[in-house]
Amino acid sequence: MPQKGRLLIVDDNEELLFAFQLFLKSHFESIDTIKNPNLLVSKLREKEYDVILLDMNFKAGINSGNEGLYWLKQILDFDKNACVVFITAYGDIELAVRAMKEGAVDFVQKSWDEKHILSTLLAAYKLRCSKMEIKSLKSKQKRLNQEINKNKSFVIGKSPRMQEVFHTVDKVAATDANVLITGENGTGKEVVAREVHLRSTRSDQIFVHVDLGAISESLFESELFGHKKGAFTDAKEDRMGRFELASGGTLFLDEIGNVPLHLQMKLLTAIQRKEVTPVGGSTPVQIDVRIVAATNCNLHKMVADGLFREDLLYRINTISLELPSLKERSEDIAELSQFYLEKFTKQYAKESMQMNKSALTKLEKHAWPGNIRELQHIIEKTVILNDSTKLNAEDIIIGESLKKTEVMPDSFNLIENERVLIKKAIQFTGGNMSMAAKELGINRSTLYDKIKKYDL
Fold it and tell me: Can you spell out the DSSP letters for 286-354?
């Protein structure tokens, strides 16, 4: 069956054009030919081509290849994603290398090796499909980012502490300096990381979030650096790592304090050299990422205790942002509550809700051990359980921590009780794994391992 591809052949040899057309017609959706390269650009304006097979020499007695290279430049100026395969009667390797450096995807000789010619053109077509898919995804991502970010700040807060954070973000965002965001769990480190990205020159590029606390040691390199097909048992195809995926944009390394010491060097090397080597590969891949990292750990103390590399800390800590806990910015509770009220009433198709003074007072007096994440969970629960548009203090349900609740177990089987306790913690926190892990006194990586173990 014919391939879904459009081919343009540019050569001054009429017999060769006819032979190519006859040979390739069963492999391409459409084939157009032109003898005069001066018609090339106008032809490209009329129709979009997936592959262009271009002669390198048109004038008799000249075999420098300069004509082909000139027309290659014209094609790429018109369409930077064009896939051009050069064809020549002269097997000049240096010329082939030069052509590839100038942007050609391959090079074949007029030796009429049907198998080689066909495989080269079909490979070029697949490359074109990949390029167009990437172009489409980037375009969609750009439009999505523009729509999401239009006149919008991710961070909420008018308190003095948050104004200090905004001031630092304003200063650092436009640079490419690496940023380390610290603060308790639930203080909004990811939100601030997105704000840094939003205000940067990379805002129309991708923002990639990696939860380092949730990646097992065995998958660390594969997740971050990618892998080649066959690199290990389950590697059934090539996979791009998070560093390469984020190239051109921002890579957010969340929970960086959870990275084991023996893997920190691999992370440092990637950041320093601005390149990664996929697992099972031998060729480094160049990357261009801005690093924003976050942790609730005291990394300086970890360095002193020999648990975190000092050189890695310096690499990620060009600029430091410390986020205040919610109890340190109680002035922002009313605004945050209203934001989540509007979000969840819309999400659950409820009428607009408002809190009266008693409800806000109750929220402002709470200690907020779970910070903004806890507030978000409480407001979501409030919206789900209430139908009134006016919320009083009694409508705001602030549950006590699981670890403060003593319940006699039905049995003393440790495995069964651990399974039940994990399940209850996940239910209590509304599926928020960070809060569930905190309630259980373990890190997220351990929690995910146990969820897998108990098939929860």
Answer: E---EEEEEESS-HHHHHHTTSS-HHHHHHH-SEEEEPPPGGGGGGGHHHHHHHHHHHHHHHTTPPP-E
What count of other Cβ atoms lies within 10 Å of the Cβ of residue 154?
Answer: 17
Pairing of strands 319-322, 207-211: unpaired
Of 287, 299, 201, the residue nearest 251 (C-alpha): 287
Q: Is 61 exposed, middle or buried (0-12, 13-18, 19+ CB in 10 A)?
A: exposed
The CATH class for the domain spanning 402-453 reads: mainly alpha
What's the confidence (pLDDT) of residue 38?
92
Query: In this predicted structure, what is the pLDDT of residue 231?
Result: 84
Residue 38 CB neighbours (<10 A): 10
CB neighbours (10 Å) of residue 369? Answer: 16
Q: Under a CB-based contact definition with an 8 Å cutoff, are residues 291 and 128 in contact?
A: no
Distances (CA, A) of 189 to 180, 216, 247, 437, 454: 10, 22, 21, 17, 30
pTM above 0.85, yes or no: no
Any idea which fold 157-322 has? Rossmann fold (3.40.50)
Domains 6-133 and 157-322 share a fold: yes
Contact 106, 75 (CB under 8 A): no
